[in-house]
């Protein structure tokens, strides 16, 4: 599994990346890429078969640049494979932290990590937050949607930290009405606000429209979807604080975070290998491409050249600010819109998605929600097997209390 030498390399990178020369930084990534491919070939049946079919041997991957020889894997492929094909031999399933993706692109996938892998991924998030100015003693109000799955409660190592007053985070369900969220956030008096970009922007607009005094935390960090200029303006004015963006996913943890000098996003190159592809070829700086990622620190369930379903524009490499990271100029996908309803409410689509996926007795491969009018929402589902009429009715009944009687 994840070797202690790999963990040590990740820790050194987090602590010393500002002082690393570009050649040092690249050499570290190449070592991590070689280790990952050797492990995946030896222990994960899917990747061994994939490489064998294309005449590839682990020794042909000498570094991060050679990963492009391996074919891209899509979410649809990962969804159809049994657990023992994509999980490494030797891991104990009952010891893994299991989570599912939000399904923002319409497709969900289960992610499995060891406790140590989860902690390594958290290091990169902590580095980005420290870069923004967040400190361990700051109190955080997180406006986010609730995830299901093991690993999202308070972990054992977090209990003593919270007892010491460190890393205090209070999560507020973004499905709730804006006034309820506002009252809870203001009662907390947080040093920092974080959360889903759409939910936090909605909160900012509410505070402006209702004339609430600015909360003025030290900063606001948002992610989970594309942040438009209007959303950033609403958040900054409503909360009275600078806004910083992060880009991450359940599969990869932190992917990129905003540069304070250029406004572009530093790619977390010591954690992931990011490719932007157009018709299968890498794009030049300024070009738009589909995001394909390799996670350098996931061994229990590797993600190698995995198509995430997002679009982004390539930026400078390395960043002009002096840090050794490549950059994304901007993201162009994964925007989540709220649905306005006839009774005046605005509904976060994830409030429906959770009920749909929990109520569906069949496995959902892909889904799409379309609001055709204020009083009509259409769900399209691609199941793994045809559902029976009573199973479809069960899904309709599950969302009815959320939509109300005026919406079909």
Mean of residue pLDDT values: 88
Please, how many helices? Answer: 12
Radius of gyration from CA coordinates: 22 Å
> Quick one: biggest sheet?
12 strands, mixed
Shape: globular
Helical residue percent band: 25-40%
Cα end-to-end separation = 50 Å
Widest sheet, order of strands: 4-3-5-6-7-8-9-14-13-12-10-11
Poorly predicted regions are 148-152
Following the backbone from N to C, one meets helices and strands in this order, namely HHHHHEEHEHEHEHEHEEEEEEEEEEHEEH
Q: What percentage of the residues does DSSP assign to strands (E)?
A: 15-25%
Helix and strand content put the structural class at: alpha+beta
- How many DSSP E strands? 18
Walk me through the structure.
It is a single chain. The model is unreliable at 148-152 (pLDDT under 50). It is globular, with a radius of gyration of 22 Å. The termini are far apart. The protein has helices spanning 4-16, 22-43, 45-53, 75-80, 83-86, 115-132, 158-163, 178-188, 197-210, 229-239, 349-359, 389-403, and strands at 97-100, 110-113, 139-144, 168-173, 192-196, 219-223, 243-249, 253-258, 265-267, 272-278, 281-282, 288-295, 306-314, 327-331, 339-340, 346-347, 364-373, 376-383. The longest helix has 22 residues, at 22-43. The protein is an alpha+beta fold and 408 residues long. The strands form four sheets. A twelve-stranded mixed β-sheet has the order 4-3-5-6-7-8-9-14-13-12-10-11, with helices on both faces. A two-stranded antiparallel sheet has the order 1-2. Strands 15-16 form a two-stranded antiparallel ribbon. The protein contains twelve helices and 18 strands. Helix 1 (4-16) runs parallel beside helix 6, helix 2 (22-43) crosses helix 3 and helix 11 packs antiparallel against helix 12.
């Amino acid at each position: 599994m994840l070797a202690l030498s790999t963990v040590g390399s990740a820790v050194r990178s987090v602590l010393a990346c500002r002082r690393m020369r570009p050649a040092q930084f690249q050499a570290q990534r190449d070592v991590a890429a070689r280790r990952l491919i050797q492990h995946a070939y030896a222990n994960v049946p899917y990747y061994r078969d994939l490489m064998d079919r294309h005449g590839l041997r682990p020794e042909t991957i000498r570094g991060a640049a050679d990963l492009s020889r391996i074919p891209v894997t899509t979410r649809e492929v990962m969804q159809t494979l049994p657990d023992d094909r994509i999980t490494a031999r030797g891991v104990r399933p009952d010891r893994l932290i299991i989570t599912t993706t939000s399904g923002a692109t319409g497709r969900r996938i289960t992610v499995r990590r060891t406790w140590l892998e989860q902690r390594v991924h958290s290091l990169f998030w902590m580095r980005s937050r420290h870069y923004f100015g967040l400190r361990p003693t700051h109190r955080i109000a997180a406006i986010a949607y609730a995830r299901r799955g093991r690993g999202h409660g308070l972990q054992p190592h977090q209990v003593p930290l919270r007892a010491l007053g460190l890393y205090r985070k209070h999560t507020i369900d973004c499905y709730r009405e804006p006034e309820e969220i506002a009252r809870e956030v203001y009662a907390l008096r947080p040093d920092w606000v974080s959360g889903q970009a759409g939910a936090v922007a909605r909160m900012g607009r509410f505070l402006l429209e209702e004339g609430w005094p600015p909360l003025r935390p030290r900063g606001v960090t948002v992610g989970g979807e594309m942040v438009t200029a209007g959303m950033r303006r609403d958040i900054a004015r409503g909360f009275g604080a600078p806004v910083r963006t992060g880009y991450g996913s359940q599969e990869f943890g932190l992917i990129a975070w905003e540069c304070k000098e250029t406004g572009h996003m530093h790619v977390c190159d010591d954690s992931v290998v990011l490719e932007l592809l157009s018709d299968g070829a890498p794009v030049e700086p300024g070009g738009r491409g589909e995001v394909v990622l390799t996670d350098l620190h996931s061994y229990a369930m590797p993600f190698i050249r995995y198509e995430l379903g997002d679009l982004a524009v390539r930026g400078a490499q390395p960043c002009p600010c002096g840090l050794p990271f490549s950059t994304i100029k901007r993201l162009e996908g994964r925007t989540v819109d709220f649905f306005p309803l006839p009774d005046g409410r605005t509904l976060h689509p994830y409030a429906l998605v959770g009920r749909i996926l929990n109520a569906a007795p069949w496995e959902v491969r892909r889904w799409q929600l379309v609001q055709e009018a204020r009083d009509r929402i259409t769900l399209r589902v691609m199941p793994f097997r045809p559902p029976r009429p009573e199973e479809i009715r069960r899904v309709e009944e599950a969302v009815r209390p959320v939509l109300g009687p005026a919406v079909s």
